């Protein structure tokens, strides 16, 4: 057994929280390397860098990756230009005078909203807005990358690739971009057409951590990819006349922590517990040769500093601290059979590796048991769902007694007021799931989608975790479990009426889900109505609806103006320029003919229309009078609504709606019309043709006003004609029935 001897040239130990996020970086031109701690401290063995610290502004979430490209790049360009004038080429000097106090480096923002950063061979910053690439010391927009390239893990630009690759993989041209991904695939990208071609993929979809392209006469002859779990795949052009590729696969028997290239086919690599080895992929044996380096362990990251002199720098874990070391290795291997120190190190590394593998086996056993339990639970749940579906009856809701599963969605309003004040009322959906223990829904998700019925706009969507079922007992025996939550609905943003669709979601893995649609219902503003208190009823009777409504609406506007929660962002903007209403209707009538209507049917008519969703408190709407309902709607705070039912004649009834705010008045009218149409069968009666003729004429004039070319004049004419048409419509409805009700 052989090893490579190493010598530690320099080292520094630093106290920091976590070494796994501290990648080593630096500048090949200046032969310097450094790491960055989570606290923003530059960790380096160079005296000029050891006391530098990044400005703390903007580093509250820690540092994950740092790339230096500004000053060092410009210095290099300047030196290159001077060497062209015949002067000796010199490296830019770094000030070696080390201050005893920490020096802060102020950070300058070069990009924002960056979601992914590629630093291999060229700096690429990827954000949702697009991609930028560093060229000549400046960031420029690039078409080679896009906002969707966040899965890239390594990349190379290729100017000329061998024709064997073009014919074997059917590549469109010989130049492009080759890149690896986090899911183990290696792609070729045609930059002009942005067409991606899959070259090959790792068997276990392991992340590509390193790519190497080997060239001969400026032509790429070999592509080598290194996977995170130790898989190495290479494709090389053959020397034969027949165009073809030679494929080799190697395996390092441990996960790859860090890797850097020494020369073609030769690499320094840190694997497993952090031991460092020298890899040779091309040798006399035509197989992978790995030679470990002595006196190195727990190396998290490494970087070749000087290839000619065999020097690299590494970040190592040392208990609760990390060590940044500069190491030189001897490229000639020696036998360790007679080296007691090397044998001791080998034994310790082997024991560490065995302990790590044992921990991995235990972790896999735990994951396997968890997966097995989840699979058994899934099978039981799917069987229960199928059983529930078999027991369902078309047109009937699920009940706990009939199917073992019950799901209810109930619109409710809640107020912090114990006296029934209406200005602090909030709207909620009360979701309740009752199920037997056999149906294991714990940990599922519930999707709630609200879609406006009168608009193509996308409504509000909510996703709630179904966690926290509680047992329900009857006579000391657990009968079922219950999950109930109140989900707030922001009626300032959500338009009503709206369709509410609920779906139970079982997540199988990161990409697959099983969806089980549960319910679908329509909600309107009266579903979120709240009965007025007896005190409000008395105030309206004494002072009138207009005065009470005016006071409440003014109070509500002041409440929004002085709100400090950010719930009403436009309140101050609209304070000096409140919107004016062209209509001022406060009362509308809806009349129907009724062939036969008993007193009992008459008294139950209005509670039946308004009672949907209010079965528990419908009596509070009427205050003992079945012919009058008094309520406010959560979407129109401060606007009391009175709905009266009366007999016009033995065969005709009248619904009278009163509200001082016209939009709320028309909204209640629309809801009542819809509910009456849904609840009762109707026949259209014969109406007075003269009155219908006047309404048709007014509607025709309204259409003509909409078609006017002059915008200013047409707007005024349109509003005037709209008001006239609504007045005619209200007059017709006030005098004539619009349908016939048949009570079933």
UniProtKB/TrEMBL annotation:
This is Uncharacterized protein. It comes from Mucor ambiguus. Residues 340-367 form a coiled coil. Keywords: Coiled coil. It comes from the Eukaryota.
């Amino acid at each position: 057994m052989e090893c490579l001897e190493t010598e530690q040239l320099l080292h520094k130990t630093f106290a920091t929280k976590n070494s796994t996020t501290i990648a080593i970086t630096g500048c090949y031109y200046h032969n310097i390397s450094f790491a960055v701690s989570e606290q923003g401290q530059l960790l380096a063995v160079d005296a000029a860098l050891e006391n530098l610290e990044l400005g703390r502004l903007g580093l509250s979430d820690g540092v994950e990756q740092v790339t230096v490209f500004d000053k060092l790049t410009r210095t290099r360009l300047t030196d290159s230009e001077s060497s062209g004038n015949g002067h000796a080429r010199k490296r830019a000097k770094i000030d070696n005078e080390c201050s005893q106090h920490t020096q802060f480096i102020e950070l300058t923002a070069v990009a924002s909203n960056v979601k992914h950063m590629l630093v291999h061979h060229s700096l690429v910053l990827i954000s949702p807005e697009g991609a930028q690439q560093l060229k000549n010391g400046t960031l420029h927009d690039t078409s080679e990358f896009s906002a969707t390239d966040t899965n890239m893990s390594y990349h190379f630009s290729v100017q000329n690739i061998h024709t064997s690759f073009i014919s074997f993989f059917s590549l469109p041209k010989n130049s492009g971009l080759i890149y690896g991904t986090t899911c183990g695939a290696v792609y070729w990208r045609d930059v002009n057409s942005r067409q991606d071609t899959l070259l090959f993929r790792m068997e276990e979809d392991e992340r590509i951590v390193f790519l190497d392209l080997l060239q001969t006469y400026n032509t790429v002859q070999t592509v080598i990819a290194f996977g995170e779990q130790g898989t190495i795949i290479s494709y090389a052009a053959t020397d034969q006349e027949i165009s073809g590729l030679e494929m080799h696969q190697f395996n390092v028997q441990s996960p790859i922590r860090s890797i850097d290239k020494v020369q073609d086919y030769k690499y320094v690599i840190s694997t497993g517990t952090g031991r460092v080895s020298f890899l040779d992929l091309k040798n006399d044996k035509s197989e992978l040769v790995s030679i470990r380096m002595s006196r190195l362990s727990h190396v998290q990251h490494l970087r070749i500093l000087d290839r000619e002199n065999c020097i690299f720098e590494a970040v190592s874990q040392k208990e609760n601290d990390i060590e940044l070391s500069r190491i030189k290795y001897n490229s000639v291997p020696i036998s360790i059979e007679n080296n007691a120190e090397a044998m001791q190190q080998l034994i310790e590394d082997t024991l560490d590796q065995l302990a790590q593998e044992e921990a991995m086996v235990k972790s896999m056993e735990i994951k396997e048991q968890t997966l097995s339990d989840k699979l058994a639970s899934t099978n039981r749940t799917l069987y229960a769902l199928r059983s529930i579906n078999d027991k369902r009856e078309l047109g009937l809701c699920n009940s706990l007694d009939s199917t073992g599963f019950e799901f209810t969605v109930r619109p409710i309003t809640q107020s912090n007021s114990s006296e029934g004040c209406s200005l602090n009322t909030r709207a909620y959906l009360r979701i309740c799931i009752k199920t037997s223990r056999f149906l294991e829904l714990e940990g599922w998700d519930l999707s709630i989608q609200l879609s406006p019925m009168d608009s193509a706009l996308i409504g509000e969507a909510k996703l709630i975790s179904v966690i926290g079922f509680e047992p329900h007992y009857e006579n000391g025996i657990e009968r079922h479990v219950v999950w109930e939550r109140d989900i707030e609905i922001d009626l300032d943003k959500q338009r009503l009426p709206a369709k509410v669709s609920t779906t139970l979601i079982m997540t199988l893995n990161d990409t697959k889900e099983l969806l089980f649609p549960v319910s679908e219902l329509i909600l309107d503003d009266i579903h979120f109505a709240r009965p007025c208190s007896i005190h409000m009823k008395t105030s309206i009777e004494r002072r009138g609806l207009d005065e009470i409504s005016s006071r409440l609406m003014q109070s509500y506007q002041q409440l929004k103006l002085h709100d400090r929660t950010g719930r009403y962002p436009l309140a101050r903007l609209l304070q000096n320029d409140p919107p004016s209403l062209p209509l001022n209707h406060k009362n509308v009538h809806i009349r129907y003919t009724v062939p036969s209507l008993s007193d009992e049917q008459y008294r139950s008519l209005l509670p039946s229309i308004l009672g949907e969703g209010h079965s528990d408190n419908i009596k509070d709407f009427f205050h003992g009078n079945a012919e009058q309902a008094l309520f406010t709607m959560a979407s129109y705070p401060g606007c009391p609504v009175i709905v009266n039912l009366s007999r016009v004649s033995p065969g005709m009834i009248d619904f009278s709606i009163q509200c001082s705010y016209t939009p709320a008045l028309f909204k209640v009218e629309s809801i009542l019309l819809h509910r009456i149409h849904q609840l009762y069968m109707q026949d259209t009666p014969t109406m007075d043709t003269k009155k219908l003729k006047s309404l048709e004429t007014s509607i025709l004039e309204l259409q003509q006003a909409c078609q006017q070319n002059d915008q200013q004049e047409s707007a005024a004419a349109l509003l005037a004609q709209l008001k006239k048409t609504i007045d005619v419509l209200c007059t017709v409805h006030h005098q004539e029935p619009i349908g016939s009700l048949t009570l079933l």
